[in-house]
Write a structure and sequence with these properties.
Layout (H helix, E strand, L loop, with lengths): L15 H11 L10 H8 L3 H7 L3 H18 L8 H18 L1 H9 L12 H19 L5 H23 L10 H7 L6 H11 L3 H24 L1
Helix pairs in contact: 1-2, 1-4, 2-3, 4-7, 5-8, 5-11, 6-8, 7-8, 8-11, 9-10
């Protein structure tokens, strides 16, 4: 347990929840790895020492922000209503939307696994939210009816796809948002590159949500095919 000294002057309006809420808001414009104690202190117009009174270091800040992110995602979790396919589609879409809302979290998890599926021992507050998320997520996959091995594979494939799609959407990595790509493709010789010209306009016109839905439907189709094969 961290021992605290006297409360820092001018920090009476601060508490752990306020600090983490500000940190989470910052991930709408900054990668989580760039949200430091100094940056949060500047946002709150307090000294870094005031933040350290509530959070013992950078890891505690990062983990706290991730925990709050997961807590808010659980609050928006769709309730199961019908069969596995529309239910899993609703779950995947809710996770995707939440990551798009906080691009800095998507950027962080697109680069590393830290705090995504594991919370260090002793951080019970964070572990509880993560465990609840994993249980609900795994339940949505398990409802498909595949064996444990194939369910685990699709659980990993789906969450990796969701994070990558959200990161691409939020960070404007789509083809139409790459300034020079259209001009480069248009300048290519049509006889040498007929398929590029055939798909150029459609490719450049893809929106993030369109790409996400298309990818999700491919994964759902794969799940459905394996379900039929297993039952057969």
């Amino acid at each position: 347990m961290v021992r605290r000294g006297p409360r820092p002057p001018g920090s009476r309006k601060l508490d752990r929840e306020v600090i983490l809420a500000v940190g989470l808001v910052l991930t709408k414009s900054l990668p989580l790895q760039d949200v430091s104690i100094v940056r949060v202190a500047r946002e709150l117009d307090v000294t870094p020492a005031s933040i350290h009174y509530y959070l013992e270091g950078r890891d505690a800040l990062t983990l706290g922000i991730v925990t709050l992110f997961i807590h808010d995602l659980l609050a928006e979790w769709p309730q199961p209503r019908s069969s596995w396919k529309p239910d899993l589609e609703a779950v995947a879409t809710a996770i995707y939307r939440h990551y798009v809302r906080y691009p800095g979290i998507a950027a962080y998890f697109a680069a590393q696994n830290r705090f995504r599926v594991f919370i260090p021992a002793g951080e019970q507050r964070g572990a509880e939210h993560l465990h609840r998320f994993l249980e609900r997520y795994f339940a949505a996959i398990a409802a498909v009816g595949l064996n444990a091995r194939r369910s685990a594979v699709y659980s990993l494939v789906l969450i990796q796809f969701i994070i990558a799609a959200a990161h691409a959407t939020a960070s404007h990595q789509l083809p139409g948002e790459q300034d020079e790509l259209g001009a480069v493709m248009a300048a290519l010789d049509r006889r040498s590159y007929p398929n590029i010209h055939r798909m150029r306009a459609s490719y450049l016109g893809l929106a993030g949500d369109d790409a996400f839905r298309a990818g999700l439907h491919l994964i759902l189709a794969g799940l459905q095919a394996e379900r039929r094969k297993q039952s057969g």
